[in-house]
């Protein structure tokens, strides 16, 4: 599937993505990219985040591909069962946090526990780092296995955000392109 054939819904994590974050840059660069705003970035409520994702999927007029970072990865996993048989064709998931076993995850993000373990009803790729302070690589592999996601180890890349030096993140864009090539319209 070509990017121009889909609505690319870009879903930031806790606290939103700053101006230099790769998600903001992709939203500006991808002609069909839509940056999705949540009601409250700092005190997230699982049901509100899930409802926002569902609403944007339903309002889309074309096939949808989700691009989620951090806490939004868990929101997508929670919303997935409700998005079976919808326009969602795939999901590019980056730096899932582990609110169950990682004490560094913000207390406000713990409401996204337990992490869903059911397979996602659409193709997906989970990209994680061996040095992410919010999730061990082993847990990320476990999430990917449960969700049926392709897994990519990004190596020493921190939380794959602006703080870890991932502004434009061209390697991520290449991985996203590979996922898009697998999807059908």
TrEMBL record:
Q: Which UniProt keywords apply?
A: Hydrolase
The cross-references to Gene3D superfamilies, in alphabetical order and at most eight, read: alpha/beta hydrolase
Can the keyword Hydrolase be found in this entry's annotation?
yes
Molecular-function GO terms, alphabetical = hydrolase activity
Record InterPro entries? AB_hydrolase_fold, RBBP9/YdeN
Q: What is this protein called?
A: Alpha/beta hydrolase
């Amino acid at each position: 599937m070509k990017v121009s054939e889909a609505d690319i819904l870009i879903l930031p994590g806790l606290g939103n993505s700053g101006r230099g974050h790769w998600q903001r840059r992709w939203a500006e660069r991808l002609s069909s990219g839509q940056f999705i705003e949540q009601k409250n970035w700092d005190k997230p409520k699982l049901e509100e985040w899930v409802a926002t994702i569902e609403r944007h999927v339903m309002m889309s007029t074309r096939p949808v591909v989700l691009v989620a970072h951090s806490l939004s990865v868990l929101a997508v996993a929670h919303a997935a069962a409700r998005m079976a048989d919808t326009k969602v064709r795939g999901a590019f998931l980056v730096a899932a946090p582990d609110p169950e076993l990682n004490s560094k995850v913000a207390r406000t993000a713990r409401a996204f526990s337990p992490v869903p373990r059911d397979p996602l009803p659409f193709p997906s790729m989970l990209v994680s780092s061996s040095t992410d302070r919010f999730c061990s690589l082993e847990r990320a592999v476990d999430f990917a296995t449960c969700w049926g996601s392709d897994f990519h180890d990004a190596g020493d890349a921190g939380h794959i955000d602006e703080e870890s030096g991932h502004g434009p993140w061209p390697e991520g864009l290449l991985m996203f392109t590979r996922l898009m090539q697998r999807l059908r319209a």
